[in-house]
Amino acid sequence: MKLFHTQTSPFVRKVMLAAHELGLAQRIETVYLRPSPQAPDPELSRHNPLSKIPALVTDDGETLYDSVVIVDYLESVAAADDAPRLTPLGPARWPVLRTQALCDGILEAGILVFYERAQRPAQLHWQPWLDGQSAKVLQGLDALEADHDLTRDPTTASPNLAHLCLGATLGWLDFRRPVGDFREGRARLAAWFEAFAQRPSMVATHPS
Q1: What pLDDT digit, counting tens, does each position of 159-193 carry?
Q2: Under CATH, which number does the domain 90-202 receive?
Q3: Could you tell me if 40 and 51 are in contact, meaning their C-beta atoms sit under 8 angstroms apart?
Q4: 134 touches 68 (CB < 8 A)
Q5: How much is the pTM?
Q6: Are strands 29-32 and 2-5 parallel, antiparallel or unpaired?
Q7: Fewer CB near the terminus (10 Å): N or C of the chain?
């Protein structure tokens, strides 16, 4: 398999965390690209018309894009090897997928804040936009802080997709800091992330 990636992308990190936890990382060739909203990458655009990463070319030559779809595909591949499931079946499935949606939404809002500040000239920054997107990030973090089931055991031997999404989200917020330090007022998330960040899959996918 071939993954078009940028190491600092939290959505790429989510995919690679899943690959490591499922025992598939060694089967994925990573191809580094650096697309931006202003300059789509021609090679990436040939595989994903949205010119967004991650995009995965499967062993059959089909391209899949969006981290949600790619992780689901990797789970289907790993199922043949009897790897543990990241997304449980039955009633436990829905809280995990809800956490994935919440983490993805936090990242999408945070990335908008990051790009507004990094790409637009300072005199053109739209403060109401920055405030609104930052509020989404902070509200999402507060909801995660209140989820005691999610953060109960950061050293679990069998993390699920919700844990991987949380690790990728907090890792990116700590790396780019679009809303400052996520730890402020969130002792539970801070303690969970400190422990979970030591996991081999997290160490292997740390952005640089």
Answers
A1: 999 999 999 999 999 999 999 999 999 999 999 99
A2: 1.20.1050.10
A3: yes
A4: no
A5: 0.95
A6: parallel
A7: C
